[in-house]
Amino acid sequence: MSYQPKPETEEKAISYLRGKSNVKPLELATAISISKRISQSICIYLHTKGKLLRDGRSYTWDPIDAAAADRIYDERVYSLLELLDERIHLGGEHNRAVANSYRAGMIDSCVDNRQWTDTLQKIRTRLLNCLKVRNPILLLDIEREIALDIPTWAGDLYKRTPYAKQQLTAERRMAYAARKRRPLDEDFFAARQDKVDARKRAAREAREEADRILQAEAVTMLARLNTQDPCSLNLALQILRDMGPEKAGRLFLPRPMSPDDAEMEAAIPF
Predict the structure, then answer these.
(1) Domain count, the chain
(2) Confidence class of residue 270 from pLDDT cuts 50, 70 and 90?
(3) Alpha carbons 158 and 263: distance in angstroms, whole number
(4) Which domain covers residue 43, as residue numbers?
């Protein structure tokens, strides 16, 4: 950061760039009546100081100033504290339920299913220091420790509201509608439609073949049961769908007759 602009030139540039986005150095040079080379140097200088965000050849004013940074820091610390308090409370309730089940003799151990919260309590103690001392590095290290016990903590804290999802969907549709149209390639879409039709046709033929195999298995099962009742056919098809041909076949295999069964059958008068 060897270049140092004049104070009045820097103030003019900041006044023009504040709150703007996608500003190119040439636009800045025209707006505040300076050369393009000086404009490029001022943009690089302000980008190095953290006042501008670079996006390709253009620059955007960074909306996060010192006050906004303090507010974001405090909100993050309080959100993490609420998350830790909730997880510690839920873990305590779960552990009490496990202990009651152990006392009642319903489980053999009160340690296996226990949810340990000792590390979360230590993390909470460290996190309380971030309320007194603004230390972003300490907060970053605490977030690393939280991720070891709660890998999904960021997704649990930050979620889009239904309204934000609707707005994002609308913006994407508008951007998609405003995109540069390409010339329609009829051969590409015709070939793609042929592939889609072939895939659907193959899936339909596979389903029909599976139905034929299932029907044959059902007829074989009815032959083992020595019946041709339509209701029995529907029942056999349902059993084959639920259990599979292999298990259903083992279920309806003829069982060899034991000596006790032979004596019982001989004792039954006809």
Answers:
(1) 3
(2) very low
(3) 74
(4) 7-61
